[in-house]
Write a structure and sequence with these properties.
The chain is α+β, with helices and mostly antiparallel strands and 188 residues long. It has two domains: 15-114, Homing Intron 3 (I-Ppo) Encoded Endonuclease, Chain A (Alpha-Beta Complex); 120-174, no CATH class. The protein has seven helices and seven strands, in the order αβββββαββααααα. The strands form three sheets. The protein has a three-stranded antiparallel sheet with strand order 3-4-5. Strands 1-2 form a two-stranded antiparallel sheet. Strand 1 and strand 2 form a beta hairpin. Helix 6 packs across helix 7 (161-174). 16% of the residues are buried.
Length: 188
């Protein structure tokens, strides 16, 4: 080992250590993190006595709240920006708040930050289909009678392509007059 145990190697220990590694915007008061980021979100190496390990890499807002409060967030809590701060790389503890995931979801719904995002709409629609949306007998008959592609039917009926495909697969097998005798369907 090239250094004695307990030597300070440059991790962030105080709010001042955090602030001097940022570009401070005088107009908004944001502390824009200048060092390592992952998808625009600051990654901070914190060495604080409240942590179980001497050095820990965490997201910037969580690190800012830890240094400001002197203790880590409670289990299950996440750190996120206040509604006044729109910067993704801001680590000013005055612009951060924490709460459980439900509180964060309520905050996001009120702020409108994810409203209209195509990725969120697709994820919501996909989860809605997976939660047991029923395919009515009329929709099933329409799918089995249609010559359109799986993609076109899925768009027309607002279903997932998998839902349309599975109706077509199960429809052919479970329709007695279409089923063929096979060695693979025989049961003792």
């Amino acid at each position: 080992m090239s250094h004695p145990h307990g030597t300070y190697l440059g991790g962030i220990r105080t709010l001042e250590d955090l602030r001097i590694r940022c570009a401070v915007d005088d107009d908004t008061g944001c502390w824009h993190w200048r060092l390592s980021k992952c998808d625009g979100v600051p990654k901070v190496h914190v060495t604080h006595p409240a942590l179980p390990r001497p050095g820990h890499i965490m997201r910037g807002r969580r690190a800012a709240l830890l240094l400001a409060r002197g203790r880590d967030l409670p289990a299950g809590h996440v750190a996120y920006a206040r509604s006044s701060c729109t910067s993704k790389d801001c680590v000013n503890p005055a612009h951060c708040q924490s709460g459980d995931r439900d509180a964060h979801g309520v905050y996001l719904a009120k702020s409108g930050r994810v409203k209209g995002l195509l990725s969120k709409a697709k994820a919501s629609r996909a989860m809605w289909d997976k939660r047991g949306r029923k395919v009515t007998p009329q929709i099933r008959a329409h799918i089995l009678a249609s010559e359109a592609s799986t993609y076109a039917l899925a768009k027309e009926l607002s279903l997932s392509q998998f839902a349309v495909w599975s109706v077509r697969q199960k429809g052919a097998v479970h329709t007695p007059h279409l089923a063929q005798a096979s060695a693979f369907t025989w049961r003792p």
